[in-house]
Amino acid sequence: MTDIRELTQAEGRQYQQQTTGRDMARRNYLNLDTGILLAILFIAVVFRFHKITLPLVDGFSWREISTAMMADNFQQRSWNIFFPEVSWTGPGPSYQGREFQIVSYITALLYQLFGWHDWYGRVVAAVFGMVTVFSLHRLTALCWGKMHAHAAALAYALMPATIMIDSSFLPDPVMLALATLGVWLFVKYWAGGNGWLLPLATASISLGALSKPPGLVAGAVIFYLMVCWIQEKKQKQATRVFLWGLVSLAIVAAYYSWAIYLGRNYPPFHIAGSGGYIWDDGFWAYVKNRFYVKSAWNTWVWWFYGSPFLMLLAVGLWIPPRPAEDPEQRRLSAIPYVWLAAATILYLAAAGEITANVWNFHIFHVPVAMFSGHGALLLATLSPRAVLKPAVALRAICIVAVALAGSTLPLVRTMKKPVAMKGKLLGEELARLAKPGDLVVATAPDVGDPIAVYYSRARGWVFPPGGGDADWSKFVADDATAIAQLEELRAQGADLFGVTKNATDHADLRFFEHHVGVIDYLDKTATKLVDSDDLLVYRITRP
């Protein structure tokens, strides 16, 4: 009897040791995964916060400035988030039909707390970019496993496009962060998580779509998983998702109906992003332009990805991950394909708008990062099975080095060139010369860019004046029309006129060559204040 008791105790101690050993191994594995995720987040922080105080003079200047102006007007004129207002169409109010202003409103709150700095909007965008990195990692882990999660998050952290957009004063980082967070929360709910995840996911995806319409692409993933539940005869769960989806769509539709109403009924009668779609230009116009594929390809190669990331993307798309044995896991593994397909459909309908305003490609970057990460794992392991070995780690380091040298560093440097610096200098000169309440008229190096008005810290107009349906990125045909526009602005109270001497419109016409008669007119009717190598500024005299 004693021998049996001792044997039982010995077996118990052995089992306890084995269990403790497994628990320790599991904890060590979790700690390793956590450490890798923290390292990826640190890398993402380094690239997004490098030169975060850069003025709004990079390649996205035009769109950033409009967002920054709305933040200014929230803080200086009205905190009503439903009336976003710019400062480049006169004394105002200059309400415009815009997306829900999350990034500009948060930035305005920072202005109120800490004072005005033009780079606060970049900080807000970068913080949301970090949310995307984390959410993408967790979503990929549910779809394809932890090794793929590390690879996808690192790909997103290092892609030139994501670094540039996530550190720009734009609504797109908020849109993608909230959409990705919402999809991750919903997938957790779908896989058996707590019921409170559904309203949280709905709120996050809804805010993402309100931040910018491409966020609706995330809804395709929700619809796909709802259909999976219907096929499994889980009608109760599917019905609950359907009802929450209706609530989300109703909120999004109500807001954008208001934005359209605002843009159509208040001067300057402008709705952002309201052109360039297939229903505007016509199907055959899209076919004639080959759905703008050449423009998109040039953006991908020379700005957003570069050859190394495009090669990783191609490999990841060509060789899919190993199919899971569990049917539920197989359904989850299709999510990146669903997201990519929905984003592609969006592109086919809005290629003109997306290629004209390239930050709209941001909705693609979740599946692009996932497939690029998968491609990197395939090349590192030389096998569909991801196993961490010394040789695999060495190949992974080489792949990251090639991506950094061939894509990340040169393309980010290109995109962040201060191409609009002279427009900023013009704005600062106008600010120096302006009296309280003065209205300015300004023509920046990129005609139509309101950067000089923004940095003048005053209100006024771009020149040629814009805001409605007219194309203000091109000079008018003759001096007589331009002079008539100046006279109209003077009648509305314009006090200062400034132009950079390299100002060029989108038809490659230079102001100082195309509008010689306008300069002669100003010399006769206004007082010249500045005539330097870069700038020309006049004080407009009253009749």
TrEMBL record:
Its main location: membrane. The keyword Ribosomal protein does not apply. It is found in: Cell membrane. Residues 103-258 form the Glycosyltransferase RgtA/B/C/D-like domain. It is a multi-pass membrane protein. The keyword Nucleotide-binding does not apply. GO terms for cellular component: plasma membrane. Keywords: Cell membrane, Glycosyltransferase, Membrane, Transferase, Transmembrane, Transmembrane helix. GO terms for biological process: lipopolysaccharide biosynthetic process. It comes from the Bacteria. One of its GO terms (molecular function) is pentosyltransferase activity. The chain crosses the membrane at residues 29-49, 119-137, 174-191, 211-229, 241-261, 300-320, 332-350, 362-380, 392-412. Signal peptide: none annotated. This is Glycosyltransferase protein. It comes from Rhizobium etli (strain ATCC 51251 / DSM 11541 / JCM 21823 / NBRC 15573 / CFN 42). The lineage of its organism: Bacteria, Pseudomonadati, Pseudomonadota, Alphaproteobacteria, Hyphomicrobiales.
